[in-house]
Amino acid sequence: MEEIKESIPKSAEISDTVYEGSEIILYTKNRDFFRTCTELIRSIVNRVKKRIEVRADPSILVEEEKTKEFIRKTVPQEAEIKDIYFEPEFAKVVIHAEKPGLAIGKNGETLNTIKEKTFWTPDIKRAPVIDSVLVKSVRKMLHEEVDYRKKFLNNIGKKIYAERGDVDWVRLTCLGSFREVGRSCMLLQTPESRVLLDCGVSVSSFVKPYPYLDAPEFHIQDLDAVILSHAHLDHCGLVPYLYEYGYKGPMYCTRPTRDLSVLLQLDYIGICQRENKKAPYSSKAIEDMVKHCVPLEYGEVTDITPDMRITLQNAGHLMGSSSVHIHVGEGLFNLLYTADIKYETTKLFERASTDYQRIEAVIIESTYGGSSDSLPSHRDGEQFLADEVKRTIERGGRVLIPSFAVGRGQDVVAILADTDIDVPIYQDGMVWDATAIHTAYPEFMSRAMQTKILHKGKNPFIDPRLRGIGSSKERQEIFNTKEPCVVIATSGMLMGGPALEYLQQFAGDPKNTLLFVGYQAEGSLGRRIQKGWREIQMENGKTLELKMEIATVQGLSGHSDQRQLLSYLSNLSARPKRIMTNHGDNMNCVDLAKTLHRIFKVETMAPKNLETIRFK
């Protein structure tokens, strides 16, 4: 900080110098310096290798109402501004627009005009095309907590840039998801740092649903940071528990991961209540998690402790899903945690990124990592889904697609939007809410999908055939008509939710089809039906006879099979010296580790939960 201050001329009239996490913010009272400092700041950044931003001191900011009026005049109406509000604590004006590119302007011209004329720093956010109560609530809460967040981010910066000791060891403790699927959680330690990678629950396990947070190495109060790879409950489901019991530090993830996690965590509390179980945390803990979230973009390098910096890269698995690259010390050690990855371009996402300069060790998922695991291509899955739906519609039937709310539901929507079927496509349960969140973040999708949405005006999530179901009355209207349609509803394994209601209504007609698009866990109703059960017992005690056609779509998984995992590792820019497997059953973790050792001739291992591995 002292080196930066010495590089700034006294005429700049710097009134305050603070941290926002790892970023350094300079507040100036000099209007000319604010307008012309770009080249100077760039040269300092190149020298100190830290992110620096200059903002206006509150004393020179133009009045809020005049600024709002200027923004409305300057930004083209086509940008469709939905909201403008101010955060004087950060000298920022937040602009929500449906088309943020138009609000930014060519080469940032509109943005720069707002800055130069009002001295507020514009923060442009995309307003969801489908109105999302959750996105609005998250953004509103962050706005209301802006004073707290300024102090919180400054404190993070102080810790990051504190005096650093020697880093002479790095170790990892396996707290969950090793030789099993579910409750992903691991603790990465150095003499300076305690960082948690994911903290999930096992939704299919009633015996041991939570990670080993009672391990002697783990203490909530000692945590420096939490990194969340993506928004599935087996990775994000227990993060609010940490805040419920005293953690007050940062959680790093992408913005879609933050919002989608909140959706699933709130639903998880609801499920616990419906099943008369005590939820492990309250909704207040979810709010605390959001308040302490530090969102990152793909490729953004960020210091998180004095001796660790991270980069999140696209994992191809889900909206906002990330693989986590962790650089420890000054070139001492580099770890890549792949989390859940898809090394294949799909309808919505690019294949997982492999662009990493240095990697000493990799922790790779092995959900389908066994030698006998072989998945059809995503394109084959898309074709099978489209064909099954068309066949059902042509014979006058209705299609029920039980789906996971986050990820698979939106994949199915995007596939069907590309077909010529001319019937309503209903989304019921959380699928609709998750789809609304997806409309706020098209920049996290594949380049092809971004082109469709942003440049060609073909957004699959607002296709005129799509309709959201928000009440039992609307659901009843579908039951009352026999017209062909497609229904995408939760839950994906038929363990609850509106999908069960549709099943009872559709089951008796041979023209209808029950189409599974996701994994059906052992013991679930969906798995029993897949096995061939034609009479099933419902919760009300009644027996339901299934006369409808039943089919399963293969190939839409967000995970990679062994062939793709091997291809992923072969295409990494850097060759690791050690590979560890996790997130697979016992057989798959061991099988993949043996295969990797044979092919890549490096040290491989399939550790068990509660094992600790020393990297350095």
Structural summary, described in words:
It is a single chain. With 616 residues, the protein is α/β, with parallel strands linked by helices. It has 4 domains: 2-59, GMP Synthetase, Chain A, domain 3 (2-Layer Sandwich), CATH 3.30.300; 61-127, 2-Layer Sandwich (GMP Synthetase, Chain A, domain 3); 151-372 and 559-614, Metallo-beta-lactamase, Chain A (4-Layer Sandwich); 387-552, Rossmann fold (3-Layer(aba) Sandwich). Helix content is 34%, strand content 22%. The strands form 6 sheets. The chain has a 7-stranded mixed sheet with strand order 12-11-10-9-8-7-28. Strands 13-14-15-16-17-26-27 form a 7-stranded mixed sheet. The relative contact order is 0.10.
Radius of gyration: 25 Å
Strand proportion, as a percent range, falls in: 15-25%
CATH architecture of the largest domain: 4-Layer Sandwich
Percent of residues in helices:
25-40%
State the CATH class of the largest domain. Answer: Alpha Beta
Largest beta sheet, briefly?
7 strands, mixed
CATH fold title of the largest domain: Metallo-beta-lactamase, Chain A
Structural class: alpha/beta
Rounded mean pLDDT score = 94
Total tally of structural domains: 4
Low-confidence stretches: none
Question: What structural keywords apply?
Answer:
alpha/beta; GMP Synthetase, Chain A, domain 3; Metallo-beta-lactamase, Chain A; 4 domains; 21 helices
List the SSEs and their pairings:
Blueprint lengths: L1 H6 L6 E7 L2 E6 L2 H6 L1 H11 L3 E5 L7 H11 L6 E7 L4 E6 L2 H5 L4 H10 L2 E6 L6 H12 L1 H15 L10 E6 L8 E5 L4 E6 L25 E3 L5 H4 L2 H6 L6 E3 L1 H20 L8 H9 L1 E3 L5 E5 L2 E7 L7 E7 L4 E5 L23 E5 L12 H17 L4 E4 L5 H10 L7 E4 L1 H9 L8 H9 L10 E4 L2 H9 L5 E4 L8 H9 L6 E4 L8 H6 L4 E3 L5 E3 L3 E4 L9 H9 L7 E5 L3 H15 L2 E3 L6 E3 L2
Parallel strand pairs: 2-3, 5-6, 9-10, 10-11, 11-12, 16-17, 17-26, 18-21, 18-22, 19-20, 19-21, 22-25, 26-27
Antiparallel strand pairs: 1-2, 4-5, 7-8, 7-28, 8-9, 13-14, 14-15, 15-16, 23-24
